[in-house]
């Protein structure tokens, strides 16, 4: 962790721990800095958290680096990824994973976050849980 006031570099893991230790409070991620994460991985992690702890998970998204430049390069695996700005595309991709609304020609249209089948069987439909945690 290269930021003085950052509580966790893995808010999803910390949220899972807090949710498992409590029964009723809502658990918020604060802000996942989306440029440092794959939208698919964020969708999978928070879909799983929502499946395990229904109606208690809040996902906050940010677009800042959230760290120093060197760590940003290490997280993103390339200098080009740090200098480019594609937050809007990443956010659209993340929302499309949750809603299943990729366009028919989108290359990721057939990808579903892994817990989505479990959610459909065990809890409310995906469209309901999308908005409470975004």
List key phrases describing it.
134 residues, two-stranded parallel ribbon, 4 strands, flat, disordered C terminus, mainly alpha, 7 helices
Order of helices and strands: HEEHEEHHHHH
Mean pLDDT: 76
Largest sheet, in brief, is: 2 strands, parallel
In the sheet with the most strands, the strands line up as 1-3
- Low-confidence residue ranges: 117-134
Label the structural class.
mainly alpha
Count all strands and give the number.
Answer: 4
Please state the CA-atom Rg, rounded to the nearest Å.
15 Å
Describe the protein in words.
The chain is mainly α and 134 residues long. Helices cover 47% and strands 6% of the residues. The chain is built from 7 helices and 4 strands. The chain has a two-stranded parallel ribbon with strand order 1-3. It has a two-stranded parallel ribbon with strand order 2-4. α2 runs parallel beside α5 and α2 runs parallel beside α6. The radius of gyration is 15 Å and the shape is flat. It starts with 10 loop residues before the first helix and ends with a helix. The C terminus is likely disordered.
Topology readout:
Elements: H1 11-21, E1 27-28, E2 32-33, H2 39-52, E3 57-58, E4 61-62, H3 69-76, H4 79-83, H5 87-99, H6 116-122, H7 126-130
Parallel strand pairs: 1-3, 2-4
Helix pairs in contact: 2-5, 2-6
Nutshell version of this structure?
The chain is built from 7 helices and 4 strands; from the N terminus they run αββαββααααα. The chain has 134 residues and is mainly alpha-helical. The strands form 2 sheets. The protein has a two-stranded parallel sheet. It has a two-stranded parallel ribbon with strand order 2-4.
